[in-house]
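Q: Got a minute? One more chain.
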Amino acid sequence: MPKNDLSQALQQIHAKNIPLPPQRYALLEYLYAQDGYATVKDICEALIERYPHLQATTVYSSLLVFKRLGLVRELAWNNASPRYEAAICS
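A: Always. Here it is, folded:
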């Protein structure tokens, strides 16, 4: 299985001059460390200790930016919560 390439994702963000505050970086880092999909709830639970004021709306807006850049993939089916995974592999 190909390894997710966080460094390549970061290069794309910097090349497009997209702001990368600490919470957004942590979100991207989390997704690229996973072997599969994660929900927004999973992400919030994983990052809440580091960022106690992190809200789901912040995660959703960051995921939208990452999706538009092609850095994450969204999987949604029926009425289930969407799931996200890293889209760049080495």
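A: The longest strand covers residues 72-75.
Q: Perfect, thanks.
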